[in-house]
């Protein structure tokens, strides 16, 4: 039959994970820091690209690239903002990989 509260089979309730900094494993801490760091670099590079595009003609590309993120590296590369574009794409790739790693339940 099904185990119930009065059955002989002991049922162990799963404990909620303690998320204090001391209880995090080094791998989990590394993934979390990678997520936060790559997202911060991605946001900074995105704003730098949008601002740089706003300062060049045509000026409408800056605000539009700010609202539609994939346009920022595309137009930034064409506007010779190569370092910002490489930072944007690199940070995006690292962020996606860290997000996938964090989503795997070990």
Give an account of the 3D structure:
There is one protein chain. The chain has 106 residues and is mainly alpha-helical. Helix content is 63%, strand content 0%. The chain contains 4 helices and no strands. The chain has helices at residues 26-55, 61-67, 71-78, 82-103. The longest helix is centred in the middle third of the chain and has 30 residues, at 26-55. The radius of gyration is 22 Å and the shape is elongated. The model has no long low-confidence stretch (mean pLDDT 86).
Q: How many helices?
A: 4
Q: Oligomeric state of the chains?
A: single chain
Give helix and strand order, one letter per element, not per position: HHHH
Q: Taking all residues together, what is the mean pLDDT?
A: 86
Q: What's the helical proportion of residues?
A: 55-70%
Shape: elongated
- Total number of β-strand segments? 0
Span from first to last CA? 31 Å
**Structural class of the secondary elements?**
mainly alpha
Please give the largest β-sheet. none
Q: Please compute the radius of gyration using only Cα atoms.
A: 22 Å
Unreliable stretches covering 5 or more consecutive residues: none
User: How much of the residues is beta strand, in percent?
Assistant: under 5%
């Amino acid at each position: 039959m099904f185990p119930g509260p009065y059955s002989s089979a002991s049922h162990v309730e799963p404990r909620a994970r303690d998320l204090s900094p001391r209880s995090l494993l080094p791998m989990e801490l590394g993934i979390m820091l990678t997520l936060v760091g790559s997202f911060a670099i991605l946001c900074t590079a995105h704003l730098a690209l949008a601002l740089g595009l706003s300062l060049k003609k045509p000026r409408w590309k800056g605000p539009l690239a700010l609202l539609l993120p994939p346009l920022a590296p595309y137009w930034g590369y064409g506007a010779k903002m190569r370092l910002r574009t490489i930072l944007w794409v690199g940070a995006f790739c690292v962020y996606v990989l860290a997000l996938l790693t964090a989503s795997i339940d070990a």
